[in-house]
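tokens incoming
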């Protein structure tokens, strides 16, 4: 680590302990963080900004280490590692530092007649010791973007990276206590057993990113202690092509986003609903875009492990559809082609499970009505993508489909907009973050009413006469 960064936090000068190992029991880790929180030092705006700045330095100074770790765990190219994992966290942190003073201010409100005279406001206070459980698909971004919210809100935090990306996990465990206040932030490595042990500590908030099934287990574990949870899950995010869609632009944008991280993205396009008279042209443009974007690259995209590759192979084999592009899955090496399947069986696992891989089903529909009805029959998706310039079609999709977020004429950009809340609904998650929404997720909004001691009218005290009751009924 470079020693040239200015104003390095004093906590970095000491040699930090090694948390999350057998020599440091989880309850001891939690006790240390709770002791830090009690001191009150995490509450100041200056401390929060110092920690955010240190996080940004870590991402900048150790970019090469993160790139190498992501390549080893996920086969991710250097540009993709920076674009998808590192740059979004740095941008999120800079945005939080810029707006932190505004977010921390108390907000005054008016009083009803029944509460006058007096004043009322709400103020934000940190929750305490929080837990962030990261996934494997974007192991830096999806562990550290929630951490930005936790820091901005003035909390201590434990980061539990995915055991499926062990190199990234080890790197986070090494770097976070070195760059951030090691008495306030730590990393606990491990799997389900460690996650459950952390939830058993009765922490002040648990933030989980992953699939719905594990999300249910996290919620059940947190419920034992009434620990509030934020669940960022997934689901089958559809793309709807309206009759007026720009087919070439739609095909290019769908191909680019579906290939990102080999389709292993919670907001990736899961399938496309296209009108019958546009299907052949769309498929042709889609194949051309996939070929163009993949020129000079290995057509087999890396998957996280062989079990996932075997699952992708099974989804493809049981689809019942026509493979019009790709189709190769090498389970032994955990790699697969970006594959396009036209009109698979609607009841096949490919169409009932979240794919989370490089297979793109294309479903022929009769109309926008049919496309909307198809989406509404399934669980509420995390994202819905619509290609249309028709404002009526846009409004119909926005009002008739319940989902986490919607992007019109592009895909996945909702993740990069700090001014918008990001999160799911129903089976695709609960709670939101990014920007101010992350700050609020990791904060408690405390309501305050301040009353003067005078006047102290007798009318509110018993005994209640007929006249008193008459007045009270009109005031309250």
């Amino acid at each position: 680590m470079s020693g040239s960064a200015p104003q390095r936090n004093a906590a970095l000068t000491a040699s930090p302990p090694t948390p999350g190992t057998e020599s440091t029991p989880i309850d001891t880790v939690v006790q240390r963080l709770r002791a830090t929180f009690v001191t009150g030092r995490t509450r100041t705006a200056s401390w929060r900004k110092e920690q955010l700045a240190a996080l940004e330095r870590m991402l900048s100074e150790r970019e090469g280490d993160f790139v190498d770790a992501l390549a080893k765990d996920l086969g991710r190219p250097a540009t993709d590692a920076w674009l998808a994992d590192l740059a979004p966290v740095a941008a999120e942190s800079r945005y939080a530092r810029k707006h932190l003073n505004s977010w921390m201010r108390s907000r005054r409100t008016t009083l009803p007649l029944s509460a006058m005279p007096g004043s009322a406001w709400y103020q934000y206070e940190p929750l305490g010791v929080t837990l962030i459980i990261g996934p494997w698909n974007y192991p830096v971004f999806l562990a550290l973007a929630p951490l930005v919210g936790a820091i901005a809100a003035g909390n201590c935090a434990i980061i539990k990276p995915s055991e499926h990306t062990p190199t990234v996990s080890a790197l986070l465990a090494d770097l976070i206590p070195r760059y951030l206040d090691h008495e306030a932030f730590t990393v606990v490595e491990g799997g389900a057993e460690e996650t459950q042990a952390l939830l058993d500590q009765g922490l002040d908030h648990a933030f989980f990113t992953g699939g719905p099934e594990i999300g249910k287990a996290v919620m059940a574990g947190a419920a034992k202690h009434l620990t509030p949870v934020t669940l960022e899950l997934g689901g089958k995010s559809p793309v709807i092509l309206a009759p007026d869609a720009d087919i070439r632009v739609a095909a290019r944008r769908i191909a680019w986003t579906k290939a990102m991280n080999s389709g292993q993205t919670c907001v990736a396009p899961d399938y496309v609903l296209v009108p019958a008279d546009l299907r052949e042209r769309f498929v042709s443009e889609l194949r051309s875009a996939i070929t163009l974007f993949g020129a000079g690259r290995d057509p087999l995209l890396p998957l996280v492990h062989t079990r996932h590759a075997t699952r992708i192979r099974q989804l493809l084999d049981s689809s019942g559809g026509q493979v019009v592009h790709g189709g190769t899955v090498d389970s032994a090496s955990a790699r697969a082609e970006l594959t396009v399947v036209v009109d698979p069986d609607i009841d096949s696992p490919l169409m009932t499970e979240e794919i989370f891989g490089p297979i793109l089903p294309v479903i022929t529909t009769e109309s926008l009505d049919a496309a909307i009805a198809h989406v509404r029959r399934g669980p509420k998706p995390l994202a819905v993508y619509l290609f249309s310039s028709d404002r009526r079609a846009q409004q119909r999709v926005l009002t008739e489909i319940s989902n986490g977020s919607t992007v019109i004429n592009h895909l996945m950009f909702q993740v990069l907009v700090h001014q918008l809340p990001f999160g799911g609904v129903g089976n695709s998650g609960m709670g939101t973050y990014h920007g101010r929404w992350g700050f609020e997720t990791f904060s408690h909004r405390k309501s305050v009413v301040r009353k003067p001691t005078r006047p102290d009218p007798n009318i509110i005290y018993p005994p209640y006469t007929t006249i008193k009751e008459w007045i009270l009924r009109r005031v309250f």
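note: The mean pLDDT is 94.
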